[in-house]
């Protein structure tokens, strides 16, 4: 690149020498900046310039101008790096807080008032195995036939249930409390059933339809105290489940903090007494005709460990509304929670789940919206399992 024709300047130097001096100063400045900031070589910058830019005469600027630009660029990178490190520290602190809260919850589980029914003669818990997810199947004293329909279809039994825990890190239990008169006929019947199948999780909770919010809260509190898992699932006992698909769905969100996974909805707040799902505290949700905040439908949903721990730690001050799914959603209002709308968790029964299974994309969970669960689940569970199931061996061949 040529220099302009020399002409004299006032101090006796030619313009050519002045230009050479400026160029030398420029490169000296670049070397100094490189030594401190590691900025790119100017020659490489020139090589990346367009042909039109290369054909133009070079304009030599004082080094200080380029230094300021390079310094500003490097400061931006430095600030960005600090932000990244700060995020990592926040995540680490959040993890430690969860671990501390979990340890406190686990410790409190050994005292009177624990949400878990502690049986005499049980050995104290040793170091807990790290698990993938805990699935609590909500059931009632009157639902023995529903439980049998699940045992005969999608829930492994006996040694297979234990193998699922050891090899896949998956815990599955029917969740039930006790009657108003502990030790009565209803409780003894569950004792006999549990002795046979060993698939119950007993809560220190009085069973009752209007106590579902309390039961859900107690379940998460007890589960996070007993098992160390990435996710905790609540599912009703009239829903069909494909375990492999549930595992694959949760695995996609395993590294995320504070996740709330389900089929998100926002139904109307029902103020009229006597109707199903009536909300006595309807006035809290604004004017008549308003809808609830977004929350997962109650048939099945999953929450990450930190949210289960949050419920456990704050259970004494978390308000319980009439509807269990609304209560859970309300507990996460004002908390930094990621709501994940996962439609595979709310497929309809045949034919919807059937053609999806035939297409090689089975649903994770299936039920009928019209019945808030599978209509006539005892009679239909086997049929739905045959038509919509992923195959009994799918869970063993699925990697999480």
TrEMBL record:
Top-rank taxon: Eukaryota
Annotated Gene Ontology cellular component terms: Golgi membrane
InterPro entries on file: DUF4094 (IPR025298), Glyco_trans_31 (IPR002659)
Entry keyword set: Glycosyltransferase, Golgi apparatus, Manganese, Membrane, Signal-anchor, Transferase, Transmembrane, Transmembrane helix
Class of enzymatic activity (EC top level): transferase
UniProt main location, coarse: Golgi
UniProt name for this protein: Hexosyltransferase
Annotated source species: Malus domestica
